[in-house]
Amino acid sequence: MKIATAIARYLLGLIFAFFGANLLFHFLPNPPLPPGMLKDFMTVMAGTHYIEVVGFFQFACGVLLLVNRWVPLAIACLAPVLVNILTTHLLVMHGGLFPLPTLAVLLWAFLFWRVLPAFSGLFQAKFSA
Predict the structure, then answer these.
(1) Cβ atoms within 10 A of the Cβ of 42, count?
(2) Is 12 within a domain?
(3) Could you tell me if residue 81 is inside a domain?
(4) DSSP 48
(5) 123, exposed or middle or buried, with CB in 10 Å at 0-12, 13-18, 19+?
(6) Could you tell me if 39 and 29 are in contact, meaning their C-beta atoms sit under 8 angstroms apart?
(7) What pLDDT, in 10s, does the model give residues 64-114?
(8) What domain count does the chain have?
């Protein structure tokens, strides 16, 4: 199980480090966007520089996963990023779930399950001081 966890951590780290770096440094060519909601959405994301913030969090969490430091923090920070990726694919792109976002969610869920004891304090019904 340790090998599967390491493989999942490395794969998820590579995915987010690579695509986060692409959002920061734009080294992959982007095809022209079709007119409509997706183009409007991406124009707003790029115009407000929000896309760089998302890219920073993707890259930073990917690096944390690759160097095996603060993995629960990286997992916690990637959760809202994954929700936004899935929401964009389903509601804005109308393309359904592509293989890479689905793979990222499955890898994230597996890693979350493996580090679940780190989140045990979050799942308590009552707090006792």
Answers:
(1) 15
(2) yes
(3) yes
(4) T
(5) exposed
(6) no
(7) 999 999 999 999 999 999 999 888 888 887 766 678 888 999 999 999 999
(8) 1
